[in-house]
Amino acid sequence: MKKYQIAVLAGDYIGPEIMSAGLRVLKAVSEDSDFEYELRKLLFGGAAIDEVGEPLPQNTLTTCKNSDAILLAAIGGPKWDHALKRPEEGLLAIRKELGLFSNIRPTKIDRSMISYSPIEVTDSVDFVIVRELTSGIYFGKPSELTENDAFDTMRYSAREIRRAAKIAFEMAMKRKKHVTLVDKANVLSTSKLWRRVVKEVANHYPEVTYDTSYVDSAAMKIISTPEQFDVLLTENLFGDILSDEAAQITGSLGTIPSMSIGSSGPALYEPIHGSAPDIAGKEIADPISMIKSIAMMLDNSFDREDLAQEIYSSIYQSINEKNVTPDLGGDRSTTEVTDAIIKNIKESREQYVKNNV
Ligand code: NAD
Ligand code: IPM
Ligand code: MN
């Protein structure tokens, strides 16, 4: 049996808290299964700046490249706001270096979560945002900041758009077969190119219905009628903003995982939120985003949908039992929520064994 190598980047502030919660769940779900793995804990983000002066040390990058999957918790925070280098530079660099051009951010409202939403929703809310991750205004050159002037460049090539679009249409084929391109084609040249290229890709997927929405209007529909979406395809900056907004309708940003993929090499799994400096060290960070990121890894990198499903149902069961952190209105600690999820995994396994002897 292959022993998978998993790179572990815990990062800053709540990063290490939720990473250790996630790794406890990974250990629990792997016990008595034939899934074997080894963890490679690596310096990254602010923690790496403090140790070696770089947010993405060479050894971290090389080890990530040679691993079967990468787990990342969160980086950044006020400690490095005025430092020579920022932790965020490491995050952008690892995405670019590993060619992780597509970032999948799911918004799914399980039945157990309906009452946590700030808006009226049903469990038919189930969409993913496919966010282009290695181009656009985050990476476009030139970009400059002087005393009285600053500019950034939003730039896309047809190739970059095409490969992200293909991921979106392939995802849609396995889901509700609908893609919505979110852009600002009434203003931006890059968006006009997105429209042309994505339409060409759409022509190769006759089973998938395809429409477009301006980003301002899409932001409104995510709140008013989220049930209409299946796959939202969009560029880097719009995807960043819309995914935090979409997270909110599930009740908390602290519950949303993500997966970043390229055309080859290991995928990277991380919560969509940041290092939450305001709650770090208080033992109240919601670990669900990290635990779900681990479930996504088991399913997508290791073909272990069975283990992923065990994790998802144990999470939803613990939400049902009101074992939730303050972001979801509860009073449980990070550890208590993690304990509850692990207990549910163990109990449902025991039940399964009882039912099958
Ligand atoms: P944030 O996502 O860290 O926090 C926003 C709000 O959500 C805060 O009130 C926080 O307490 C809450 N929150 C986030 N995750 C939570 C969790 N798991 N449980 C409970 N509450 C949670 O955004 P921010 O405060 O704007 O950024 C803080 C730092 O994180 C910045 O340096 C930013 O650049 C960085 N950041 C990193 C990543 C990443 O590592 N991928 C993503 C976003 C932001
Ligand atoms: C995210 C974050 C990052 C981004 C920042 C920290 C660079 O907000 O992963 O969503 O904008 O991509
Ligand atoms: Mn973000």
TrEMBL record:
Enzyme Commission number(s): 1.1.1.85
SMART domains documented for this protein: Iso_dh (SM01329)
Pfam families in the cross-refs: Iso_dh
Domain Isopropylmalate dehydrogenase-like residue range list: 5-341
InterPro entries xref list: IsoPropMal-DH-like_dom, Isopropylmalate_DH
Keyword list, A-Z: Amino-acid biosynthesis, Branched-chain amino acid biosynthesis, Leucine biosynthesis, Magnesium, Metal-binding, NAD, Oxidoreductase
GO molecular function, one term: 3-isopropylmalate dehydrogenase activity
Class of enzymatic activity (EC top level): oxidoreductase
The family this protein is said to belong to: Belongs to the isocitrate and isopropylmalate dehydrogenases family.
Name of this chain's protein: 3-isopropylmalate dehydrogenase
Source species of the chain: Companilactobacillus baiquanensis
